[in-house]
Amino acid sequence: MDKIADRVAAWKAMGDSLAAYFYLYIIHVLKVIDENSTFERERTEDLLRQCSEKARHLRNRKRSIEWLGEGNDMRRLIHFGELGGWDRDKDFIKDDSKLVRVKGYIHSINGPEAGTIELLSCGLSVFFVPAKAKMKDREAGATKNHINVKVSFYLGFSYDGLRAWSVDEE
Q1: For the whole model, what pTM was predicted?
Q2: Domains of the chain: total
Q3: Domain that residue 23 falls in
Q4: In the 3-class helix/strand/coil scheme, how is the chain assigned residue by residue?
Q5: Residue 10 falls inside a structural domain
Q6: CA distances from 69 to 9, 30, 96, 98, 157 (A)
Q7: Can you tell me the distance from the alpha carbon of 15 to that of 103, in angstroms, rounded to the nearest whole number?
Q8: 37: in domain
């Protein structure tokens, strides 16, 4: 994984490619999930900010392009195109069988459309839509009363950062 990170870092240094910023932050997220290193987490958060800033002009910057699946290292990444497309009725991908659910706890809720979940494995922040979360005590989604509640979700990687999908209370 370090060799891949070095090559992508060199790619980023050689030019101003958004793809290089994007995949470099993903590589470091995977390392943080595996290693739970404070140093690596801080570096990853910086790379996330850089990628988000670089993509600020894109309309689709919040779309999850890569997803976390089973496996090791970069083989865990599942491209959006491998998931059968988007199901408008479910407001989610058609085929989630290749994805793996991860755990975290609700860290903040700024309203029905924006909140953060902290990954249990490493502490990274993940954006989620509280109104769409499936909570055991209410149908209308998560509220501020659900802060610190443990949840599971699918992890998506967008240009704008990490995104939690299909959030369910544990």
Answers
A1: 0.91
A2: 1
A3: 2-54
A4: CHHHHHHHHHHHHHCCCHHHHHHHHHHHHHHHHHHCCHHHHHHHHHHHHHHHHHCCCCCCCCCCCEEEECCCHHHHEEEHHHHCCEECCCCEECCCCCECEEEEEEEEEEECCEEEEEECCCCCEEEECHHHCEECCECCCCCHHHCCCEEEEEEEEECCEEEEEEEEEC
A5: yes
A6: 23, 11, 9, 6, 12
A7: 36
A8: yes
In single-letter form, the type of residue at position 101 comes to R
Supply the pLDDT for residue 40. 85
- Dihedral in degrees, nearest 10, Cα atoms 47, 152, 82, 4: 30
Q: What does each of the 170 residues of the chain score in pLDDT, given as a tens digit?
A: 677 666 656 656 677 789 989 999 999 999 999 887 788 899 899 999 999 999 999 999 999 999 999 988 888 999 999 999 999 988 899 999 999 999 999 999 999 999 999 999 999 999 999 999 999 988 889 999 999 999 999 999 999 999 999 999 99
Q: Do the domain assignments include residue 112?
A: no
Residues 88 and 159: their CA atoms lie apart, in Å, by 22
Distance CA 50, CA 150 (A): 29
